[in-house]
Amino acid sequence: MKMLLKELAKVTVNVAQAGLVSVASKAGYIDFPVPPNSSMRKTSSKTITHYYISGIRCYLPIATMALHCGVKLDDDISILDFGCGVARELVHFQKFYPRPKYFACDVDGTHVNFVQKNFNVQCYKNEFKPPLRYDTASMDMIYSVSTFSHLSPPDHGPWLTELCRVTKPGQFCFLTTEGRTALRFMKNEFPDRSDDKQLQETGVLYKEYPFMAVERGRRYKIPIANVGLGFTGSYGNTVLLPEYIRSAWPASGFEVIDVIEGIVDHRQDLVVLRKPPSS
Predict the structure, then answer these.
(1) pTM for the model
(2) How far apart (Å, rounded) are the C-alpha atoms in residues 11 and 17?
(3) What is the pLDDT of residues 103-122, one digit of tens each?
(4) Is the Cβ–Cβ distance between 51 and 45 less than 8 Å?
């Protein structure tokens, strides 16, 4: 009964927010699709304002670096948003660069439903493990925000290899990670001095979210209430030092062009990867 009441409470909040958004949209105060409140909260946005502004803070460094690397965002290219969530970055990419053909995927079907209904993008629900349904060398650019900062390190390699497969030779993949800058905000997740020692020795820290074991086993009557929807493997907080990324990630087939610390949403690092032209 308690769980059902929790689910109904989330639905009630979603309905209330949808009503307010409808009024605000008609009055001209909101001109972009707004996700359900429950979905925004699952992607770390408690308010509509934060959803929009944090989307800009994530999108802008990626778009700027893509242009710097020679990605032709004003042309008819193919771009994949991997782990798209509720389109926090996609809303800005499509607004300012409408010519590319956009693709998106996510493990959470409720997120995918929202994106399919509100954006001009081919979006589908992928599995927690590779592969993706896309053809080899089919994407001119891939970006992913706050995905590799939550996957466990053993899952990084297979996904990096898969993203490399999908990327066209000579083209780029932009991924965000948690590093030294983010660690300052994560004292609750990594409170022990032994964590600092491990990070310095290995370049990696990972702790699964405590609630994931419970959420994976629950069956909700209302899917939007399940914060672990689609996560069939380990999922939590991951910190990676740039030195580790430069050493470990080229095994996927990508070249690590740069790791720009703390540039994404005032917190995350931006990893610039390139698939060699001869691949």
Answers:
(1) 0.95
(2) 10
(3) 999 999 999 999 999 999 99
(4) yes
